[in-house]
Amino acid sequence: MKELVGHCDSCQKPIYCLDGFFNGVKKDSGKIICFDCDDEEEAEGGS
Asked: Residues of 18-42 as b/e, b for ≥16 C-beta within 10 angstroms?
């Protein structure tokens, strides 16, 4: 099952829940971002 949860707060890519798995990252600030943007933030040393 594939259900749209929202859009990445960084790049606006759609983020889905795939078979019960949230296909993104929820930050402490409450924002949701895709895995690609999270990897970029981690590489830059952000949180």
From this structure: eeeeeebbeeeeeebbbeebbeeee
